[in-house]
Design a protein that fits this description.
With 127 residues, this protein is mainly α. The protein has one domain: de novo design (two linked rop proteins). The chain contains 5 helices and no strands.
């Protein structure tokens, strides 16, 4: 399938949806976390989709595209780590939401990894 826009990518749609959910969740954290871990998790969750978008803009160059998708996975892992920290320190106490977000970020990481493999094996200069 030829993608016309990054918005066509399922990984982008999922990353965007999760970034919005993280943003909303982080605003409900205790005040002392709002500008510490809360700020970090907002930045990392938004970085997952932003670096994906930047990579898509460079998709003509296979190695550049893969590099930015790799950064996207790193931000996905960072977001997952912030979730663990918030939950373990009891700043985020909603167990069901924590488990849901962890599962979703783990799945998103796998999706991005599979997309990288696809780009690596079937990349064309024109999409």
């Amino acid at each position: 399938m030829a993608y016309q826009s990054y918005r066509d990518l399922n990984i982008y749609k999922k990353a965007h949806k999760l970034a919005v959910e993280i943003h909303e969740m982080s605003l409900k954290l205790p005040k002392f976390e709002l500008y510490e871990e809360g700020s970090q998790i907002r930045k990392s969750s938004k970085s997952v989709k932003s670096t994906m978008v930047e990579g898509f803009g460079r998709r003509r160059y296979k190695l550049e595209f893969i590099k930015f998708l790799t950064y996207s996975i790193a931000s996905c892992d960072e977001t997952r780590d912030h979730l663990d920290t918030l939950y373990d320190t009891k700043s985020f106490r909603d167990k069901a939401k924590y488990e849901y977000l962890c599962e979703e970020y783990d799945h998103l990481g796998k999706m991005i990894s599979n997309f990288i493999k696809s780009v690596d094996s079937g990349h064309k200069t024109r999409i």
